[in-house]
Automatic annotation (TrEMBL):
GO molecular function, one term: pyridoxal phosphate binding
InterPro entries: P-loop_NTPase, Ser/Thr_deHydtase_PyrdxlP-BS, Shikimate/glucono_kinase, Shikimate_kinase/TSH1, Thr_synth_N, Thr_synth_N_sf, Thr_synthase-like, TrpB-like_PALP_sf
Family as reported in the entry's similarity comment: Belongs to the threonine synthase family.
Domain of life: Eukaryota
Pathway terms, separated by semicolons: Amino-acid biosynthesis
Gene that this sequence comes from: Thnsl1
The name this protein goes by in its record: THNS1 protein
PTM annotation (N6-(pyridoxal phosphate)lysine): residues: K345
Obligatory cofactor(s): pyridoxal 5'-phosphate
Keyword set, alphabetical order: Amino-acid biosynthesis, Pyridoxal phosphate
CDD domains in the cross-refs: SK, Thr-synth_2
GO cellular component: cytoplasm
GO terms classed as biological process: amino acid biosynthetic process
Amino acid sequence: MFHIFQYRPLRLITQKSLSRMCLKLMLSRPVAFAQIWNSWFSSHSLLGNKNIILMGPPGAGKTTIGRIVGRKLDCPVIDIDDDVLETTWKMSVSEKLQDIGYEEFLEEEGKALLKFSASGSVISLSGSNPMHAAGMQHVKKDGIVVYLDVPTTVIMSRLKSMQVDRIVGLSPGISLKDILQFRKQFYNRWYDIRVFCGEDITAEIVAEKVLDAVKRYQDSELETFISTRCSWSRRSMEKDSRKYFSDVVIQGLAPDGGLFVPERGLPKFTAGEWQGLIEATYIERAQVILERCIHPADIPASKLAEIIGIAYGENFSCSKVAPVRHLAGNQFLLELFHGPTASFKDFALQLMPHLFAYCIPRSCNYLILVATSGDTGSAVLNGFSHLNDIDKQRIAVMNFFPEDGVSPIQKSQMIGCQKENARSVGVKSDFDFCQTAIKQIFTNSDFTGFLTVEYGTALAAANSINWARLLPQIVYHASAYLDLVHQNIIPFGSPIDICIPTGNFGNILAAFYAKMMGIPIRKCICASNENNVLTDFIRTGVYDLRGRKLISTFSPAVDILKSSNLERYLHLIANEDGQLMTQLFNQLENQGHFQLQRDLLEKLQQDLMAGFCSDEECLAAIHSVYSTTGYILDTHTAVAKVVADRLQDRTCPIIISSTAHYSKFAPAILQALRIAEINQNPLSQLHLLSSYGALPPIHWGLLETLKKTENGDHQVCAADMNVLMHHIEILIQNHFM
């Protein structure tokens, strides 16, 4: 058996003599002492007895990078090909492969790996080592596996320049590209850390990225979350005010009424890293982006990859998941309605339930509370229905929606998605009441304490106030930009504008976060309907609800006056001033208004533009676009189209977020298309729309849902906090007791 251990002669020196030697060196040559100490401390604190194991395809640079990392840490470097396989076989790897063939080679390679042992070393695996499960399990138990993820096109170019014409698995009829794609499943299975490597990047820089990634992996304290209302003094004095990703997924809303945000901000990607994702699939992009935002101590990379694969796999009807379609001129549509409930909410809510189920402790039951202005309810109910049976027993969902404030098809969806552990209740009020009520329930310690003691049940939120709802939305904004580059619409680095129908400010905030992470977004344009409080705020800096009443429009998902996620944005541009956020939003709650200081308004207006449109303009836009292109916009996308037409300066492309499928708003669409007689039956309305043969086709999931729920029913309650709490308690009793 191979044993390669790091030799540490300092262990042979007594502590007393070592102290004398250090003191003498420190006094006589302080700079040299500092360099020696830092080198020794960095390698021993980073590695200990663990190995750094570099994994990746042939041509990823594992050997070169391993040598550089080893030099920086002053520790042994082991190349499996050179130091283990060829030493054992007494011949080159290529000769062995040619001698015994592909399948037997993998087995012999795995056997050699099983006999290998090392400690405190940097190990460079062969490109095919990960294909032998037993060998990888043996190596992985003593180390941290770092996946050098290099785009396939870059690898193929490197192998060609290196004149490599033989790798494990290459045979007539199988291309090099196919082999590299096939191997990814094995790399994804074993890695602890991914280091994403673009095309124009030196081995020295990759080595630094490896060291930074290992440090991050070993220190979850680097990635904590704070409340938007946490003051600087509290942050310095109260360590308990900091939370981890798993904590904020479970808690949703901070105890002080604020929203959780990452204390050190979001990770920044280099231009090379983004360019390396141009050829990637949506799922691959999501994995790379979310791994950098979620610490592996909260969710290991392999588990996160599994969750992402489940979320964006068969549940979406389009293989591209979030395709970008050219509309007209320099306007493009980001189609966010290919999920099971036909709205952009599916992107977060196919993922978030699995994140939540992984993070919660096994000793407690959880009730998810949801307030919806239309699309969130069915998306939450559908998302949590995909959990396994064990998790369904521990997690229930209660969805509140404005009884008369959603479309008939949205209501049918919410009724149809009800399960034994998931109920929908219509409230005789508007969305703002539902959202405010949920916030108050969360901060009602008497009620939440009662549920915990009496029923062993805790409350959690699935609205966009939950960080796990917001985070996945960053991915599709980044992906849309990369798609424009991939389609040769723009070169990487050229700016775009984004226009988003906006109510609760989550979707547009995710676009701004994508910009912070390195996507070249110039302006985020906020599009409102006649509930245009955000438009007024962005133009004047005054958020004023006094005298405003919510107006029911054809775009109900943005019929919102209190935009919760705005607090996260203001916290960011106000240099994380938690005290100011407390002041502003307490004033909004108590007096119905607040005003930004001039410097903050100027910052805001550098990032955001805003406009609104009437219902008449919305319907006219739907008719106009259909007449000229044969494409049907939903009512929310039409709002954004009207605002984009007014505000864009046409110097760069603009991506309009198409946040829902038009089928969900059939009566308004039929009115826009000037159909004289409209059947009130939702199913008949969809059949009528499908007869037009327009783009996009009728949504596959909506027809199935309506067929199942023509005779469905649900509960309706008064706009009373006590009544809502009663419904919550009844569901808990029925499901958990």
